[in-house]
Amino acid sequence: MTTRILPAVGDVDAARSVTTLLSQLPEAEPATPVSDSTQLIDTLARLAGESLDDLPEVVLVHERIGPVPALELIREVSLRFPAIGVVLITADVTPGLFSSAMESGARGVVTLPLSYEELANRVQSAAQWSVGVRRHLTSGTDVFTGPGGTVITVSGAKGGVGATVTAVQIALAAQASGRNVALVDLDLQTGDIGSYLDVQFRRSIVDLSTITDISPRVLSDAVFSHSTGLALLLAPSEGESAEEVSDRSARQIVSALRSRYEVVVIDCGSQLQGASAAAIEMADTALLVTTPDVIAVRGAKRVVRMWDRLQIRKAEETVTLVNRFIRNTEIQPQLIEKITGTTTANTAVPANFKELQAVVDAGRLHELDSKSTVKQALWALAGELGIVKVPEKAEKSGAKAIAKFKNDRGSIGRRRDRDGDSRNRKTT
How far apart are CA 305 and CA 340, in angstroms? Predict the structure, then answer.
């Protein structure tokens, strides 16, 4: 049996050493090493999207991989891709490190400097375990085998640009299409999702911050089940409690949510903290909301540059949404795209706060009229982001029809111009 091995090694010399030894293993098929945690997750997600059978049996994680720490990376890989055997390569051979690696989901530890026999034994053991798990997964129908749910983060270029309204509405769109959706308020000091949806709940994300192993039971106790079907994980009512949610706990919480829900929408607010930075880094799509004015666009550029300096996310991997768009404004989406270096969404949300004012003041944003142009634009954005479930009939026919949702008539879909160009910048 051929064993496919994917090394994740940041150091060039260490990567060369690992590759040389792996090439000597019998029936081993080592892939080109990936240099950081983001590249590893992206590679595995891409392979899983094509076919679960394309995933490697073994992933080797070097202790100096970054920017996500090695143990946190092992935990995320184990949660998202449970049929992969992960092996840690480290110079630390203490019992404490070994125990931490096992708790994170590693199937073995290889000590540095590398030896052929130890590496061969650990890889063989992890590969046999992986094959056994895959055999079990393919024979059962109740075991989750996918790469995990889709995580969307929504951040504001500055305060008041509409990030929370955007997060709530795209989550509602995904839920209405039949997805299992969690909406998370990670704007820890000033989060308002509970106010927008008329929710009072004593538990918050802080209750999960000190738990090292978040089980489904623990997660369900901290989540509020809203009448719309959304699962809400709220921000703490006391802003000072935000300090209790570290970047490490945020990674564990996001991983736990991803393993249970098809779509996870996270409102990160406009202030960058360790927890929100971790979520943005882990997200499949990072959405940055701005308005077409000089101050907000400068803020968006500042945010994008900060994310790049901190190695959280590259500009080209960020999607910018233009909110409160007016057709004759001087600052058009194309200009914002050029200034920030990001990709602007095909959808632009029109400026029409009158449609929102009544439901916002009443704390009933989920009851926004389906005829609202703002709602139609945001639900179209959800379709553009790929978090809505398209009816099979529409998929087979290739029609550009609007999806029919239960209990709602909001529109979802991509808009195209007369030439079929999906980059149309007109408002809904």
Answer: 8
Question: 285: Cβ–Cβ under 8 A, 6 or more apart, which residues?
Answer: 150, 151, 152, 153, 319, 385
Q: Sheet with 28-30: list strands edge to edge.
A: 28-30, 3-8, 58-62, 85-90, 108-111
Look up the pTM and report it.
0.69
Burial of 294 by CB count in 10 Å (0-12 exposed, 13-18 middle, 19+ buried)? Answer: exposed
Q: How far apart are CA 102 and CA 169, in angstroms?
A: 40
For 293, the token pair is 């004015």
pLDDT in tens, 4-41: 999 999 888 888 889 899 989 888 899 999 998 888 98
φ/ψ (deg, to 5) at 188:
-65, -30
Q: What residues contact 9, with CB distance under 8 A and at least 6 apart?
A: 15, 18, 33, 34, 35, 60, 62, 64, 65, 89
C-alpha 416/C-alpha 424 separation (Å) is 6
H or E segment to which residue 182 belongs:
strand 181-185
Length of the chain: 428
Q: What phi and psi, each to the nearest 5 degrees, are found at residue 3? A: -105, 115
Residue range 36-66, pLDDT digits in tens? 888 898 899 888 877 778 899 999 999 989 8
Token duo for residue 421:
């160009």
- Which contiguous run of DSSP H or E holds residue 123? helix 116-139
